[in-house]
Each structure stands twice: as C-alpha cells, then as structure tokens.
Specification:
19% helix; six-stranded mixed sheet; tt1808, chain A; 235 residues
Length: 235
Amino acid sequence: MPVVTAEYKITWEKLPDDFPLPDDPVDNIAQPLLAVALNESLEQAGRLREDMLVATNYGVCATMNGKIVVKAPDWMYVPRISVTQKEVNRSYTPRLQGEIPSIVMEFLSETEGSEYSIKPTYPPGKWFFYEQVLQVPQYGIFEPEEGVLEMYQLDSNGRYKLQQPNEKNHYWVESLGLFLGVWEGTKMNRTGYWLRWWDENGEMLPWGIELVEQEKQRAEKLIAQLRAAGIEPEV
C-alpha cells in the first residue's frame, strides 16, 4: 500500500536488475572495520539468523513519485526478510522484501553533514529518508575519531528524538535485545573507538579473538590448578 507524505507518494518496488547502483569508495578505512566489528560479535553470540539482514554500505530502496531512491547506510539491521538472501544480494526494498530496518548507522567522516540532511526534495537527504520515508525506529550517528555516539528514536509524531543512554552510557536497541555503546581499544590493527554490544546483564559480546583469549586463560588456569594438586597435565 502506498504511503503518502506531505509531498511524496511512496511505493515499494523491486529495483530493476539494470539499475546502476553507486559504486563510490567508503570515506575512510575505519568505516568497513567498524561495520565488520559490529557484525562479528553478533555472529559469535549466535544472534544472526538466515531470515535476518545485516549489511554495510548496501542499497536500501524506495520509490518516491515514480523516482527510485537508493541510500546505502554504513550499517543496518533488518529483523526479518521474506525472501531468500540471494534475492537481496544486490539491494533491498523494505515492505516488499521484508521488514523495514529497525536500526541504521552512519559513521561520520571529514565530509560529514549529509547524515543530518533533512532535504525533502528529490533526491532526499539521509535523515529525511530514514525518518520520513523508511521510518526506521532507531538512527545512530557515530563519530569514530572522538568516540561520540548519537542515537535517535522515532517518537509518537514520527520524528527523531535524541535517545538518552543508561548510566553506563549505553543505548538500548529493542529489536536486538542489546545495548550499544562505545569502547576504546585495538582490533584489526586499528586503535581507537569502536561500537560494541552489551547484553541486558551488562556483559560485553566478545569478538572471535577475545573468545580465543578467554579459552586460553581458562586452559592456563586449569593447568595451574592441576599442578597445584600435584597432577602434571598432558599438553
């Protein structure tokens, strides 16, 4: 069913196979690393299913007054798709191929500004597209150099309102049942600020390398306990 805003008739149509998608490079080397890190801990925790869609720098489509609009958020999460992963290999049209994204993220760079654009005329700004067209429940904007995270939620009037964090400066993401926050450290030869997930008990979801380190420490502790008991373990 079409959705009519003050100026646009919005429909949900499959992107034509010959539609030229933008192939612009990412703004900086940190952006894909941040996205991969977000995905990795979710996968390690077994929180990704076949009928979910998690993507980075990937086209999300809507048709406005007969004109196709494609935006590529730096990271997004769709709770459920109604088609196969193969059918959304190139792009994704919400409502037609599944649910709308429950959260989108943009990582600021030196060319920042477009993430806050409320330009309603074609082609619309990112903020306007996520808020008024897709109506994404949560929109995050992350500045990785200073480690500043802003989270916005749709209010009852369909407008983004700044979300308040908890006492640990973490933001609740209802669709994932997790908190999102900023962590400082090193991964993939990058030292700086990262986005991390925490569960409802305040435990941080680990990356793969952290799980390996945890297993190593447990094994070393067990060996030490056996030796203290006079047992020399086989290694």
